[in-house]
Design brief:
Length: 537
């Protein structure tokens, strides 16, 4: 039977619950346990697929095509285990199921209520992962902050589960903030006391308190928190600010968080976790032998989390190349023919990001023309690949009005087109081409050099596709299609013949890059950027 660890948050949002959950998962996994992490989001959207990145940051896509919270990206990057639809539950999806059941008459005439119907459905979702038999430990992160109205049904479910499963099978880790008052030169514990009291008022007593802090937490403060919050003093854990998110597992290891958890769950804790690979990764991360500057051209660059997986993929690929990758955000809306050289000339590589809608498109196309002509390494992802196709059509094939149907329905040359099955769709949520699809890679290509395989599978999230009516003209003019979906013949990868490294992919490689397995396309892209820099100097 799987055991459960719940991670709740107090005092403020953005304390890094996702990173704490991932780091804890990593430590338990390094002790040989089979771990998965699940996220509960207390909003009413059924999934974050319809949310603007400004609202929510990146939308992470799983192999089975779920559009999910970006924390699932952290879980996968840390654990190197794929997540699925079952790993992300929203209040919207809980209500949707309950209301559908009610319409079917499944509740046999009963009044449908938050308790027990909503809480039962939440419980079912928690247990469904455990019932797969694939995991020893399920870590469940409760989104939001304790005390929010939206979080109440989750806290109540947690209370019931703990009672049903017993304290040795279900424990609660509460993440909180210890603010530092500069004037008093003191860490303050009162907000933590209040948030624990709020949890207790709802019937949930945390077992462990993890304190986010900018300063070390003294024994005295630990004892004070322990006394006022009813936990053992060794169960007050310091999570001091770190240089990198990848330091956090080792910080928690030093605090013996994994040991304490195993003891509380009555699991054997004699063996030390094997973190050697992780430490090697960190060593390389902190001791790069070179440095490259790569431009990230996108329209959501103001928001740090909008391209989270891309940013992290560069960290992983940088480590493989022993190179620090400085990712320089460039707003596509402000790129014009007049300023493109100024913005891009000192870069060693350019990535054009995924996106939706026409804002910033012309800037992306202008940037691609610049890097194509100047032979600067280029990686285009999803919309970035589509823009590379449009740019090539306009400036090489000289079809001046070439466009994607998404941007211009009237174009005479729809080089990026809508798939037949997408044409009559009315609903926006969950209707794109989503999740993992197979791709055949041609042998003489940059893609094959990277993957070292002719059969790959990558995740998708888009509606529009390369228009195969134009295929032969593109190939003749030098844009090769080096990755093709074997079932549908849809183009997955394009490359340029006379360019050192110019690759566009319809899928999202960034969703598959992890600490233990940097994504091969990112690895080769960074390598190409290093080579470009060397040749330039
Ligand atoms: N807007 C494009 C499409 O829907 C690209 C999507 C993306 O970049 N994720 O096809």
């Amino acid at each position: 039977m799987a055991k459960h660890i719940f991670v709740t948050g107090g005092v403020t949002s953005s304390l890094g619950k996702g990173i704490i959950a991932s780091s804890l998962g990593k430590l338990l996994q390094a002790r040989g346990l089979r771990v998965t992490i699940q996220k509960f989001d207390p909003y009413l959207n059924v999934d974050p697929g319809t949310l603007n990145p400004y609202e929510h940051g990146e939308c992470f896509v799983t192999d089975d095509g779920a559009e999910t919270d970006l924390d699932l990206g952290h879980y996968e990057r840390f654990l190197n285990v794929p997540t699925s639809q079952a790993n992300n539950v929203t209040t919207g999806s809980i209500y949707q199921t309950v209301i559908e059941n009610e319409r079917k008459g499944a509740y046999l005439g009963k009044t449908v209520q938050v308790i027990p119907h909503i809480t039962d459905e939440i419980k079912r979702r928690v247990k469904s992962l455990g019932n797969t038999g694939k995991y020893d430990i399920i870590i469940t992160e409760l989104g939001g902050t304790v005390g929010d109205i939206e979080s109440l049904p989750y806290v109540e479910t947690l209370r019931q589960l703990r009672w049903e499963e017993g304290q040795f099978n279900c424990i609660v880790v509460h993440l909180t903030l210890l603010p530092y008052l500069n004037a008093a030169k003191e860490l303050k514990t009162k907000p933590t006391q209040h948030s624990v009291r709020e949890l207790s008022r709802n019937g949930v007593q945390p077992d462990i308190i993890v304190c986010r802090t900018e300063h070390h937490v003294t024994l005295e403060i630990r004892q004070k928190i322990a006394r006022f919050c009813n936990v053992e003093s060794n169960a007050v854990i310091e999570a001091i600010d770190a240089d990198s998110i990848y330091d956090v597992p080792l910080i928690l290891l030093r605090e013996k968080l994994d040991r304490i958890i195993l003891d509380k769950l009555r699991l054997p804790s004699h063996k030390q976790p094997d973190m050697s690979q992780w430490k090697e990764f960190l060593g390389r991360l902190k001791n790069p032998t070179c440095e490259v500057n790569i431009g990230l051209v996108g329209k959501y660059v103001e928001l740090q989390d909008a391209y989270k997986s891309i940013q992290e993929s560069f960290v992983h690929a940088g480590v493989t190349n022993e190179c620090r990758v400085n990712v320089i955000s460039i707003h596509s809306e402000y790129i014009s023919e007049r300023n493109v050289a100024d913005k891009l000339k000192d870069l060693d590589g350019v990535l054009v990001a995924p996106g939706f809608g026409s804002r910033g498109i012309e800037g992306k196309i202008t940037a691609i023309q610049y890097v194509r002509e100047r032979k600067i390494p280029f990686l285009g992802i999803c919309l970035g690949m589509q823009c590379a196709v449009i740019e090539f059509a306009r400036n090489v094939l000289q079809w001046k009005d070439a466009d994607s149907i998404e941007m211009n329905e009237e174009t005479e040359n729809p080089v990026i087109n809508l798939m037949e099955e997408q044409k009559n769709l009315k609903l926006m949520g969950g209707t794109m081409r989503l999740g993992a699809y197979r791709c055949d890679v041609k042998k003489k290509s940059k893609a094959y050099k990277a993957y070292k395989s002719v059969k790959i599978s990558e995740r998708h999230r888009h509606r529009y596709e390369f228009n195969n009516d134009y295929l032969s003209q593109f190939v003749e003019a030098g844009m090769k299609t080096t990755g093709i979906n074997p079932e549908t013949s849809l183009v997955e990868i394009v490359e340029l013949e006379d360019h050192p490294w110019f690759v566009g992919v319809q899928f999202h490689p960034e969703l598959r890059s992890t600490v233990s397995k940097a994504h091969p396309l990112f690895v080769d892209f960074v390598e190409a950027a290093i080579e470009y820099q060397v040749a330039k100097n």
